[in-house]
Specification:
Largest sheet: 5 strands, antiparallel
Number of helices: 5
Strand content: 35-45%
Number of strands: 29
Helix content: 10-25%
Radius of gyration: 27 Å
Distance between the termini: 90 Å
Structural class: alpha+beta
Length: 445
């Protein structure tokens, strides 16, 4: 006869004092847990629902401008410093931790078209409708001193875009041509033209620092190398591009914000087709900025929303909007990758969380462990229909919801027409054009 004796060690489950955490015996052997998957699925479902419950992305509104916010600039060395320029020529320096303006200066007459902080963070540059480039100190003037720029350069045309080199005292502007300037000189050291009336934006590559790209009024995106005397190549699209943003981790990739409601990610080595077409906006996309990790980017649109896209996804993972927010003109991703800043028509700068449900502040070890466990469960079950539906669902303003449905019907009608034309034509006479190829007219080298 076989007798099994129960043997328990009290040290395994009895607390030493009443202040200790209760010890819960757990067996990790899956063969002894026949309902392990169903339990984990329930936990993943609850974690997904709670994520949507706690999704409160809006943090603060910085008001003080007397006209629409036209441009934003990040400080390369200080996380809490933000610069903004408005349509009445006013520039403000903000302290983001205190949510207050620490300095205001009347920089230009008319719009502030662009603004950038020098790579060392000691000064910044602004351009405006008064055809001037102004160089300002970052520190506020002392008591009794006047607010005056360090240097003023008078140009021949209205400047529309500005960016600074990542490592040297060189900056670029665009107007009817793209100019490269040395900080010590009042005339450009190099100018690039390619038979274009005007340029709207210019951006230096943060990795390959000698490369830069610009958007032109003839619907083209032009790439340059500062070491060359002529532009490298350009891609002409079906509609105009408003601005571009380079991936800070992968030197060859850049994303452009287009007037046709889409964003396009290109590999600069193969410009014949975009790598990815990002859809979801229902109006022109006005600005785009990458996160410091290079995995996501945020876009600002005329449809009064901002969206966050994974770099390899066609659809956005997040959409932010408020009742009062009007057309979003400019957007920036903070240097610590945790926050998104947007400037809009109704004179406000808004601060958002990049991860809507993230808990801010100090986390205890048990909270960190619980968050990590929930995240792994959501990743494991992310393709289950119920969890996928809850995770993807976002409430949209009624106007945007109707516009999105209308665009979907129009797109489906176009696709059906193309299929019918192809079906009733001579075999091979109507080529099949992919979605990526439709938006590129030609590539000129």
């Amino acid at each position: 006869m076989k007798v099994k004796v129960l043997s328990r060690n009290p040290d395994d489950y009895v607390r030493e004092t009443k202040h200790d955490i209760q010890r819960v015996p757990r067996n990790y052997d899956p063969s002894l847990h026949p309902f392990e998957v169903s339990r984990e699925y329930t936990r993943a479902l609850n974690a997904t629902k709670l994520e949507r419950v706690f999704a409160k992305p809006f943090l603060a509104s910085l008001d003080g401008h007397r006209d629409g916010v036209n441009c934003l600039a990040k400080h390369p060395r200080s996380l809490s410093t933000l610069l903004s320029g408005s349509c009445d020529g006013e520039v403000k320096v903000w302290n983001l931790t205190k949510h207050e303006c620490v300095r205001t200066l009347q920089a230009h007459e008319g719009f502030v078209r662009g603004m950038v902080v020098r790579y060392c963070g000691s000064s910044f540059f602004t351009i405006g409708d008064d055809k001037t480039i102004k160089h300002w100190k970052m520190e506020a003037p002392g008591y009794g001193e006047e607010e005056e720029p360090l240097n003023t350069i008078l140009g021949k045309a209205v400047f529309t875009g500005l960016d600074h080199h990542q490592k040297s005292a060189v900056f670029a502007t665009c107007s009817h041509q793209v100019d490269i300037w040395d900080e010590q000189r009042s005339t450009p050291i190099r100018s690039f033209t390619w038979g274009v009336d005007s340029f709207s934006s210019v951006r230096f590559n943060p990795v390959e620092t000698e490369l830069l790209g610009s958007c032109a009024s003839d619907r083209s995106i032009v790439l340059y190398d500062m070491r060359e005397s002529t532009p490298l190549k350009k891609v002409i699209m079906t509609m105009r591009t408003n601005t571009i943003s380079w991936n800070p981790m992968e030197a060859y990739y850049f994303t452009c914000a287009n007037e046709d409601y889409n964003l396009y990610t290109y590999d600069m080595r193969y410009l014949e087709n975009p790598v990815k077409v990002h859809v979801d906006h229902v109006s022109a996309v006005l600005d785009v900025d990458y996160s410091p990790t290079g995995r996501e980017f945020v876009s600002a649109s005329f449809d009064k929303t901002i969206r966050i896209f994974p770099k390899d996804s066609a659809s956005s993972r997040e959409v932010y909007h408020t009742k009062r927010m009007q057309h979003v003109i400019c957007v920036k991703w903070s240097a610590d990758s945790k926050y998104v800043l947007s400037g809009s028509d109704e004179m406000n700068i808004r601060l958002w969380k990049a991860n809507a449900a993230e808990k801010l502040g100090v986390l205890s070890p048990r909270e960190k462990q619980a968050i990590h466990y929930s995240q792994k469960l959501k990743e494991k079950f992310q393709h289950h229909p119920q969890i996928k539906r809850i995770a993807r669902h976002r409430h949209l303003p009624k106007v945007i919801h109707h516009q999105r449905n209308e665009l979907r019907v129009m797109k489906e009608a176009r696709r059906r027409k193309e299929m019918n034309v192809s079906k009733h034509s001579k075999p091979g006479s109507v080529p099949v054009v992919s979605e990526k190829e439709k938006h590129v007219v030609s590539v000129v080298k």
